[in-house]
Design goal:
single chain, six-stranded mixed sheet, four-stranded parallel sheet, 11 helices
Length: about 325
C-alpha cells in the first residue's frame, strides 16, 4: 500500500522544520492585521519576529483576527493528492473552537464527487495549537512504522482525549475575549504572580484547573501533574509551547528531560493563527496521557493534592 499523505491546518503550529522532518503538509489560514490587510498565515515568522508580533498583539489585542482555510482552499489541497492516487489524512482544529473541521468535511464531499474512489479521512482533533501538532507528529510516526491510514485514523479518534496540556497562562484576558475560556476565570490573570494552570476539556477549550503563586511552585506542581497523568514518558516526544516565554520554556524543558527522560522535548513557538487567540503569556507542555476526565474533577484533584503536599513541606 502506498504511503498516505498527512495534512493539517495552520492552527497546528508545526514549524517548517518539523513539517519537513515528519513529511506533513499544512494549509495556510488567514490573518487580518490592524490596518485591515489580510495575509496568508503559516506556522512560521514570515511577516513578524516572535517578539514583534506579541508586542503588537499586547498593544492592540482586538486589532488582529484570524480565519481558517476556506472550502475551496481545502478542496484544492485535497485534490493535489487524490489526483495522484494518494490516500489522505487531514487533522483539523477543534470543531468546538472553529468552523475549520466542517470546511474540511465540505471540501472532502466536493472532491469525492470528482474522484469517487479517493480516500480522504478528516479528523477533528478537539484540540488547538501544539496539541494538534503533536497529534500530527504521532500520526506521522505511526505511518513510518507501517501503520495504514485506517489504523492511524482509528488511533486518533480513540485517543484524541489523551492529548494533554500542562502549563500556565500569565494573562487569561486574551483567551477569554476569544471564547477559549469562560470570562469568569479571566480575573485570575490580573493577579500579580498568579499562574493559572490550564487543561483541555472535551471540546479543546482551556479550562483553569488550579492557580499557583509563583513560577517555582508552578513548575513543581506541573511536574507532579504530568507524573500522575502521562503514559510511557520514555517513549514520547513532548512539545513545550510558548508565546514569548522562551526562557521559562527552556527551564521547563530541562526539568521534564531530567524527570521523565522522554525521547525528545521540543520547544515550539505558537505562531500568529493561534497566538491571536492565546496571547503572550502561554508556557505549557503537550504530551499523551491517560484520558481526561469528563468533568476535569480528577485533574483538579491532582493539582490540589500537589499544592497541599508542597504546603506541608
Amino acid at each position: 500500500m502506498s504511503k498516505f499523505a498527512i495534512m493539517a491546518d495552520a492552527a497546528c503550529d508545526l514549524s517548517e522544520e518539523l513539517r519537513k522532518q515528519y513529511d506533513v503538509e499544512v494549509i495556510a489560514a488567514h490573518l487580518t492585521l490592524p490596518d485591515g490587510r489580510e495575509i496568508s498565515a503559516m506556522p512560521e515568522w514570515e511577516h513578524f519576529t516572535r517578539e514583534e508580533f506579541y508586542s503588537a498583539l499586547k498593544r492592540n489585542p482586538e486589532g488582529f483576527t484570524t480565519a481558517p482555510p476556506n472550502i475551496s482552499e481545502f478542496a484544492d489541497a485535497f485534490e493535489r493528492h487524490v489526483s495522484q492516487g494518494h490516500e489522505l489524512l487531514c487533522i483539523t482544529l477543534s470543531e468546538g473552537i472553529s468552523g475549520t473541521y466542517n470546511f474540511a468535511l465540505a471540501a472532502k464531499k466536493n472532491v469525492l464527487e470528482k474522484y469517487p474512489h479517493a480516500r480522504i479521512e478528516v479528523v477533528d482533533s478537539r484540540r488547538f495549537g501544539p496539541a494538534i501538532g503533536l497529534m500530527v507528529v504521532r500520526a506521522a510516526l505511526m505511518r513510518d512504522q507501517g501503520k495504514s491510514i485506517d489504523e492511524v485514523t482509528a488511533y486518533l479518534e480513540e485517543n484524541k482525549n489523551c492529548f494533554r496540556q500542562a502549563g500556565w497562562l500569565d494573562d487569561l484576558s486574551f483567551v477569554a475575549k476569544k471564547g477559549r475560556i469562560t470570562h469568569s476565570k479571566a480575573f485570575l490573570g490580573a493577579l500579580a504572580g498568579v499562574k493559572p494552570i490550564g487543561e483541555f476539556d472535551y471540546n479543546g477549550l482551556t479550562t483553569v484547573i488550579g492557580k499557583v503563586k509563583g513560577a517555582k511552585t508552578a513548575y513543581s506542581v506541573l511536574l507532579k501533574y504530568i507524573e500522575k497523568t502521562i503514559v510511557d514518558p520514555s517513549e514520547q516526544i513532548i512539545f513545550i509551547a510558548q508565546t514569548n516565554r522562551l526562557e521559562q520554556a527552556k527551564a521547563y524543558k530541562a526539568m521534564i528531560e531530567e524527570k521523565f527522560k522522554p525521547k525528545a522535548v521540543l520547544i515550539n513557538d505558537v505562531y500568529c493563527v493561534c497566538g491571536v487567540n492565546v496571547g503572550p503569556g502561554l508556557m505549557a507542555a503537550y504530551y499523551v496521557g491517560k484520558p481526561i476526565s469528563s468533568d476535569l474533577e480528577e485533574e483538579r484533584r491532582i493539582i490540589d493534592t500537589a499544592l497541599s503536599e508542597g504546603t506541608e513541606r
